[in-house]
Amino acid sequence: MRRACPRAGDRGGAAQAGRGGRARTLILNGQLARGEQTLAQLACDPASSLAASAAALRSVNELRAELEKLQTLLRELGVRARTLRAACRRGLDQERAGAWLAASR
Questions:
Q1: Which of 10, 3, 1 is nearest to 81 (CA)?
Q2: From CA 14, how far away is CA 16, in angstroms rounded?
Q3: Which residues contact 7 (CB under 8 A, 6 or more apart)?
Q4: Is the sign of the CA dihedral 53, 57, 59, 63 positive or negative?
Q5: C-alpha–C-alpha distance, residues 39 and 18, integer Å
Q6: What is the sign of the dihedral through the CA atoms of 88, 90, 92 and 98?
Q7: Torsion angle of the four alpha carbons 81, 82, 84, 86, in this order, in degrees rounded to the nearest 10
Q8: CB of 53 within 8 A of CB of 42?
Q9: CA atoms 42, 47, 50, 52: torsion sign
């Protein structure tokens, strides 16, 4: 079962991907807040152009979609990591039990 469990380097890569994804989430949230603020300012300014408002709206919508996709991927990564850790623990527990039974005979 040990061969089916990820090596420390593999687990580190998944952890690094999770950290990178969470960092990107923070960046996207900041960009989204700034875009929403720009959109609100444009909406309040009667002199602002429709083209500027449309561009800001497109940007905000794209950021929301990207953020939603990233959050979905991070949730999936978390589920897969928990599932793999649980499978490895079960396998290691079975190995320990087998070793204990063999030693007690």
A1: 10
A2: 5
A3: none
A4: positive
A5: 31
A6: negative
A7: 160
A8: yes
A9: negative
Render pLDDT for 55-72 as a digit per residue (tens, 0 to 9). 999 999 999 999 999 999
**CA–CA distance from 6 to each of 10, 41, 68 (Å)?**
6, 50, 28
Rounded to 10 degrees, what is the CA torsion of 60, 65, 71, 77? -150
Tokens of 48: 């602002």
Q: What is the pLDDT of residues 69-104, one digit of tens each?
A: 999 999 999 998 888 888 888 887 777 666 665 676
Q: Please name which of 61, 63, 43, 44 lies closest in space to residue 53, comparing C-alpha atoms.
A: 43
